[in-house]
Structures are given as C-alpha cells and as structure tokens.
Amino acid sequence: MIPANKRVRKYRSQGGAADLVRVEVLIPPAARNEVLALASRMRAEHRLTKELQSLLDNALRLYGPRILDNIDLDRLPDLRSRAAVAARAMIERGDARAFAMGRKMLDRVNATEN
User: Fold this and answer.
1) CA distance linking residue 59 with residue 67, whole number of Å
2) What is the pTM of this model?
3) Is 3 exposed, middle or buried (0-12, 13-18, 19+ CB in 10 A)?
4) Of the candidates 46, 38, 45, 52, the residue with the CA atom closest to the CA atom of residue 20
5) How far is C-alpha 39 from the chain's CA centre?
6) Is position 95 within any domain?
7) Is residue 38 part of a domain?
8) pLDDT at site 15
9) How far is CA 86 from CA 7, 69, 97, 106, in A?
10) Domain range holding 103?
C-alpha cells in the first residue's frame, strides 16, 4: 500500500490535479462559500476546456485533411469556435464515426456556454 503523502504527491504531479495549482488566501469568513463556489466553477470550466481540446486534437488527427479542405481554424478566435466549426464539418463530411465525434464535440461546446 502506498503511503498517503506519496499518493497525494503522485496525484498532483501525474493524476487529475497535474495541471492545477494549490492556492491559499485569507478572506473574511462570510466570503468562504463564495470563494469555494468560484474555485469549483473554475475547475469545472478547466476540465471541460481540457476535454474539448483533447477531442479537437483527436478529430484533427483522424479527420484533418478530410474536414479542413477549405477551413482555416487559425483565423477563429478561441477553442470553442474552432471546435464548433470542426465538429460541424465532421458531421457534414465525415463517416458515421466522425458524425458521432462531431456531435460529442458540439455537446461539449454547448456545455461550456452554460
């Protein structure tokens, strides 16, 4: 069995918290719940963005030449818009697997809006 401190260190360096940082701040007691809620929203947004980037990278790796024949994703301002355009192109031009990936990407794009 791995000691707790080693397990925590491994989680922070390789696991789900590898790209997060620990922050400690002094705030009034009344604002504690507000800060915790803000941190929770930021973590959720970070996870969604990370997942969306992974989906987009995978889609471009598998279907890049087929879906990007006349699309320049570099001209789009942010990840959400690039993923939405690539997803719609996959739905229109791809096979059944590309269609499913495109729907999943659009679902994640819509989830980041809310």
Assistant:
1) 9
2) 0.77
3) exposed
4) 46
5) 16
6) yes
7) no
8) 67
9) 39, 11, 14, 9
10) 52-114
